[in-house]
Structure formats: structure tokens, C-alpha cells
Amino acid sequence: MFDWENMRHFLAVARIGTFSGAARSLKVDHATVSRRLSALEDEMKTRLVERLPRSCKLTQAGQRVFELAQEMEENAYAIERFLDVSLSPLSGKVSLSAPPVLVASFLVKHLADFRIAHPGVQLSVSGEPRQISLSRREADIALRLIRPTEATTVVRKLGRMSFDLYASKDYPHLHNPAAWEFIVYDAGFADRPQQAWLMNVARGRPVACEIGDITGHLAAAQAGAGVAGLPCFVADTDPNLRRVAHDGERFARDIWMAVHRDLRRLPQVQTVMNFLLKIITENAAFTTSA
């Protein structure tokens, strides 16, 4: 038999396609991934991965092992979820993945109230822009701005996050739209709906800078670097920012909550889901249409 830890590292390489990416996802170093993969190949006496200069490619045997290993992984997680549901009282840890802007500017403000109301539940919150897998237990619950599509998840729309254009009150071109320069996303986020909206509103006007996350957009706008498309629930409360009128359409993203179907009745998971439902649906900033 093979070591499951070795197989887990192989799965990460197979999914991501690089040793460095697999290492980041597993929170280990590059050498550990390489060592684990080599050990698995030695155990199986089969080459699973072709090491290329900048990536990895599965061999024919590696592709088949990858398919079978994914089924094993799903069954292992299913057993884990079954035991959680069968044995767990209203206590324990619940992991929540959410967009960084929701974590930093909204969720953290409610954590004290949650802790007072539910002292037995430890909430572990991770701010992640990427789509995570609930089937692989990368989180118990996910909040996302794109509707999750995993077949094993139960999804509910909680509200809408409105965006508009903002600039520092000291921005020199604040009242001269023809001279606006825009803060946009870098090439790695070219497919984001916010980017398409921003570029459509800009209509050929200059780009001041490219930044890969919304927190950076906020800081750059506060510093007077240009005009940014920001979530209204964040920017409207900043006394140093001004919402600027423009001819283009406003923009909004739906806020979705997802949970694996096997975990949705787990008491502590239900508690966190009800908490999220309450704080989002009762906040006017997330019920106003764009």
C-alpha cells in the first residue's frame, strides 16, 4: 500500500500543475512536494508526472491514478463528514472562506457578538479570492461573489454587494471627469466582472495603476492615485473618499453562501449559516440594488 500523505501531495500537483503552486496550496515547501511525489512513484514503481521546466504534466498512468485518487479522496471526506454529523454537539470549529473585502471590512466586526452568543463554536475565517472546494474540506462554509457550482453543495443567495466609482476628496481631478485616471486590476484578474465594468466606464481614459486586490484599490484611492471602483459598503463610510458621478452603469455582485450537502445539518455549521444570513440580510448596504 502507498502512503496517503504522498498521494495527497500528488493530487495537489495534478490539480495545479506546478510544484510551487501545490506547495502553496498545502502550506509546505517545494522540496516537500517533490520528495512526497518521488516517494509515491517509488511505492508504485511507476512514473506519474513528467517534470517540465515550468510545469508538470501527468503521464498516462498518472492521469488514471489521479482519477481513481479523486474518488478515494471524496470517499474519505464523506466518511469525515458523516462522523462529524453523527457525533458532533453544538461545539467545535467551523471554517469559513469569504472574499477578503468581506472578511476585513464586515465579518470581523461581528465576531465578538458571535462569540458571546455561541461560546462553544470556534469560527475560523479565511479571506480568499479564489474558488475553494467544499468537497475537499477546504472550508465548511463559503461566501462567494460568483455562484458556486460544485455538484455536492447547497447554495443560497444572501444579498448584493454594490460598487461605484470613488476618489479621494483631495484628488486633483475630482470634478473633471475627462482627466480621471483609473485604478484597475492587473492581468491576472482580467476576467473579473469588476474589471470589465471599470474598463467600460473608463472608455479609453488612462489607467493610473494596476493592483490585484480590492484592499489595494481602496488604499490607492485614499492616497489620491486615481478613481477606483469600490464596494459601496466600504467606501461610503470613509470620510476621505467621495463617490463621483459618471455616465456609465453602476455595478453589483451577488453574495452567495454555500455548504456541502452532508454538513448543512451539523449543529455548529447551521449556527454559523444562520449568523451569516442574519448579519447580511439585515444590513441595508447588501439589500440595496445597484
UniProtKB/TrEMBL annotation:
<dbReference type="Pfam" id="PF00126">
    <property type="entry name" value="HTH_1"/>
</dbReference>
<dbReference type="Pfam" id="PF03466">
    <property type="entry name" value="LysR_substrate"/>
</dbReference>
<dbReference type="GO" id="GO:0003677">
    <property type="term" value="F:DNA binding"/>
</dbReference>
<dbReference type="InterPro" id="IPR050176">
    <property type="entry name" value="LTTR"/>
</dbReference>
<dbReference type="InterPro" id="IPR000847">
    <property type="entry name" value="LysR_HTH_N"/>
</dbReference>
<keyword id="KW-0805">Transcription regulation</keyword>
<keyword id="KW-0238">DNA-binding</keyword>
<dbReference type="InterPro" id="IPR036390">
    <property type="entry name" value="WH_DNA-bd_sf"/>
</dbReference>
<keyword id="KW-0804">Transcription</keyword>
<dbReference type="GO" id="GO:0003700">
    <property type="term" value="F:DNA-binding transcription factor activity"/>
</dbReference>
<protein>
    <submittedName>
        <fullName>LysR family transcriptional regulator</fullName>
    </submittedName>
</protein>
<comment type="similarity">
    <text>Belongs to the LysR transcriptional regulatory family.</text>
</comment>
<feature type="domain" description="HTH lysR-type">
    <location>
        <begin position="2"/>
        <end position="59"/>
    </location>
</feature>
<dbReference type="InterPro" id="IPR036388">
    <property type="entry name" value="WH-like_DNA-bd_sf"/>
</dbReference>
<dbReference type="InterPro" id="IPR005119">
    <property type="entry name" value="LysR_subst-bd"/>
</dbReference>
